[in-house]
Amino acid sequence: MYKTQADSLEFLRGFLPHLTDTPDDRDVVLCVPFTDLVLLSRDLHGSRVQLGAQNIHWAEEGAYTGEISGAMLAEIGVRYVIVGHSERRQYFGETDDTVNLRLKAAQDIGIMPILCVGETKQQRDTAQTESCIFSQLENDLIGIDQHRLVIAYEPIWAIGTGDTCDAKEANRVIGLIRKRLTNPDVPIQYGGSVKPDNVDSIMAQPEIDGALVGGASLTSESFGQIVNYTA
């Protein structure tokens, strides 16, 4: 929950020049607050940056005050949407059942969902990392087309704390996630205190396909450096 429309335009002015030499095989997506979507849809038109939302409701329409439907997002050019982010699960009562419904809604309207999974500090400390993530995958992915999906492994204890998961450990967990999928080619990202000074080591890992960036994406300079990682 950052950036007014004016802030977003200022960010774009600083960020887009960083993409001049970005390799063509890298997908760049900005997942922004709902109030910024229409503005950025216009200003990103013709650029290589794709637009994403931070949430989607499962109903096509209805009495769901404060929610946004897939059709509302698709109409303004949204191509990606984050589903099941740990903050949605922690603060807003998101469950695996509602995550599953949101994933289906995104795919039904042709928007690529980015499913977030990950464990808490307590779960990691009590050797429940694998069981937690496997349970999330089993329930979240019921009836989901794994050929139209992105997954982000975001250890909750590493989000916004500055405490990044060791790159090799992140690679190990993402490898385990991949083995649980029916489509091993699903792009799997790492998210959790990704910064310019650690992105190279993260992206050098063979199982990690990308990064879900939080705080370090708020300034054009740091996000530009992350997008242009060398690994």
Task: Describe the overall structure.
The protein has one domain: TIM Barrel, CATH 3.20.20. Helix content is about 40%, strand content about 15%. It has helices spanning about 5-15, 35-45, 70-75, 85-90, 95-110, 120-125, 130-140, 165-180, 200-205, 220-225, and strands at about 30, 50-55, 80-85, 110-115, 150-155, 190, 210. The two termini are about 30 Å apart.
Which term fits the overall shape?
Answer: globular
Under CATH, the topology can be stated as TIM Barrel
Helix content: 25-40%
- Quickly name the level 1 CATH class: Alpha Beta
- Number of domain units: 1
Q: What's the helix-strand series?
A: HEHEHEHHEHHEHEHEH
* The CATH superfamily title: Aldolase class I
User: Please, what is the average pLDDT?
Assistant: 96
Query: How large is the radius of gyration?
Result: 17 Å
- Uncertain runs with pLDDT below 50, 5 residues or more? none
Give the helix tally.
10
Give the second-level CATH assignment, the architecture: Alpha-Beta Barrel
Strand order of the largest sheet: 1-2-3-4-5-6-7
Total strand segments: 7
